[in-house]
């Protein structure tokens, strides 16, 4: 695994031993590697090396930590945001507005105004009423908003149903078959400058064929739009490239395979290409470090109860997602175990009958490939504090989000006098 390696039997993140972080910060804690982030950005960029000035806009939802965003900003990435909050985070981390694209089906007038004030590169519109609202907001500010329509190509991405976005029954984008009519409507809206087409069919894609099918449809649409007189200058191909979670499974397509396919399919489009990768940049750059609270006997296999739970890493309970679970200081033996958290839900289960390093109470374990959609999806369910985050670079490390005290959670609520009386 990238920069998460064993040195003398102890897992290190770059040059920092995991137990040192656990000791200082406590567990559970997310740990990120700057070297992996840097390597992934380089690999993705190299994969697009044949393209002319592509805009790589990191999908902030995958990991919005300020230090992670600032690292990616320094490496020249833009941002794909889906809320005013993500927009402000991206700007605060130093991502220039002319590298920011705003996606999402529910942008409010207030969020539109904020994005227009900042002068973002593109709004990806997902419906005709949204286009009308944005035009009005832009006009009221004396501006024209640069837009693309996100088209729904009705392609099955072949991923988990909850993270598929490109089928006609999904809420995302405008129907492909109505696209010409929608674009004609947008051209008549004086507050819009129609500049592009966007598509994103889902996440954790392990096959390039559905992506290629979607991109081919986008290419055909660009041709038809130009025939209809639209000046199409951008094509946003979204994100979605999968990463390896389970080392026993075939590897997903590499960024190089993806880049070669994109280069081939988009030849002659004559647009600025845009990309919104999330997981492929940050997924393997992070691990969730947790301590075993106790091991209890189970009917079939022992339950390893760890101090991380579904509120810290939701993916296994939400999508039955598989994360590799490794002992930080593995003993020689392995055996089957059920790994669960302390939350009062049966779904608070990270793995059942998992063949893994034998661990006992007090041992540290690492949930691998947790840099994407990990901390960002955490909650305070069961009144558990939000998980802290640590960023490592070489031999240095820093807490980049502290664990809030539980008192802050309690004090966040207020009790009206009439309840106390
Ligand atoms: C519009 C949009 N762009 C980009 C992404 C990032 O996807 P991924 O993390 O799979 O690369 C997502 C999430 O699926 C998305 O909804
Ligand atoms: N949260 C999902 C990905 C959703 C992508 C957002 N469009 C995951 O953990 O896999």
Automatic annotation (TrEMBL):
Pathway: Amino-acid biosynthesis; L-lysine biosynthesis via DAP pathway; L-lysine from DL-2,6-diaminopimelate: step 1/1. Residues 30-371 form the Orn/DAP/Arg decarboxylase 2 C-terminal domain. GO terms for biological process: lysine biosynthetic process via diaminopimelate. It catalyses: meso-2,6-diaminopimelate + H(+) = L-lysine + CO2. Residues 44-282 form the Orn/DAP/Arg decarboxylase 2 N-terminal domain. The modification N6-(pyridoxal phosphate)lysine is found at residue 61. The active site is at 344 (proton donor). Gene3D superfamilies: Alanine racemase, Lyase, Ornithine Decarboxylase, Chain A, domain 1. Substrate binds at residues 279, 315, 319, 345, 373. Pyridoxal 5'-phosphate binds at residues 240, 276-279, 373. PROSITE patterns: ODR_DC_2_1. One of its GO terms (molecular function) is pyridoxal phosphate binding. Its cofactor is pyridoxal 5'-phosphate. Its EC number is 4.1.1.20. InterPro entries: Ala_racemase/Decarboxylase_C, DAP_deCOOHase_LysA, De-COase2_C, De-COase2_N, De-COase2_pyr-phos_BS, Orn/DAP/Arg_de-COase, PLP-binding_barrel. Belongs to the Orn/Lys/Arg decarboxylase class-II family. LysA subfamily. Homodimer. Specifically catalyzes the decarboxylation of meso-diaminopimelate (meso-DAP) to L-lysine. This is Diaminopimelate decarboxylase.
């Amino acid at each position: 695994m990238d920069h998460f390696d064993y040195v003398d039997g102890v897992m290190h993140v770059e040059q920092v031993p995991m137990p040192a972080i656990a000791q200082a910060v406590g567990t559970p804690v997310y740990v990120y590697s700057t070297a992996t982030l840097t390597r992934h950005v380089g690999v993705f960029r190299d994969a697009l090396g044949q393209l002319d000035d592509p805009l790589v806009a990191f999908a902030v939802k995958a990991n919005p930590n300020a230090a992670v965003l600032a690292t990616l900003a320094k490496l020249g990435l833009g941002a794909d945001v889906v809320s005013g909050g993500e927009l402000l985070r991206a700007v605060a981390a130093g991502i220039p507005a002319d590298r920011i694209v705003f996606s999402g089906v529910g942008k409010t007038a207030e969020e539109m105004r904020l994005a227009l004030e900042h002068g973002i590169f593109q709004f990806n519109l997902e419906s005709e009423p949204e286009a009308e609202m944005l035009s009005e907001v832009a006009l009221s500010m004396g501006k024209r908003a640069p837009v693309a329509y996100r088209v729904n190509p009705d392609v099955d991405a072949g991923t988990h149903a909850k993270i598929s976005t490109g089928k006609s029954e999904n809420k995302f984008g405008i129907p492909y078959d109505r696209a010409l009519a929608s674009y004609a409507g947008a051209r008549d809206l004086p507050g819009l400058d129609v500049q592009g087409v966007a598509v994103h069919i889902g996440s954790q894609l392990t096959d390039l064929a559905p992506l290629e099918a979607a991109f081919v449809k986008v290419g055909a649409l660009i041709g038809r739009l130009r025939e209809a007189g639209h000046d199409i200058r951008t094509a946003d191909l979204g994100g979605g490239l999968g990463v390896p979670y389970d080392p026993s499974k075939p590897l997903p397509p590499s960024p190089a395979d993806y880049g070669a396919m994109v280069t081939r399919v988009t030849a002659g489009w004559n647009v600025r290409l845009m990309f919104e990768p999330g997981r492929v940049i940050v997924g393997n750059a992070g691990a969730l470090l947790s301590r075993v609270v106790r091991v209890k006997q189970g009917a079939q296999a022992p339950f390893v109860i760890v101090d991380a739970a579904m509120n810290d890493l939701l993916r296994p309970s939400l999508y039955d997602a598989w994360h590799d679970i490794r002992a930080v200081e593995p003993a020689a033996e392995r055996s089957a175990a059920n790994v669960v958290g302390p939350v009062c839900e049966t779904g608070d289960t990270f793995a059942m009958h998992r063949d893994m390093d034998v661990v006992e109470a007090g041992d540290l374990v690492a949930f691998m490939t947790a840099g994407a959609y990990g901390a960002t999806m955490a909650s305070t369910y069961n009144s558990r504090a939000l998980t802290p985050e640590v960023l490592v670079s070489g031999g240095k490390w820093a807490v980049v989000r502290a664990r809030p005290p539980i008192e802050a959670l309690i004090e966040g609520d207020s009790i009206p006098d009439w309840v106390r009386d």
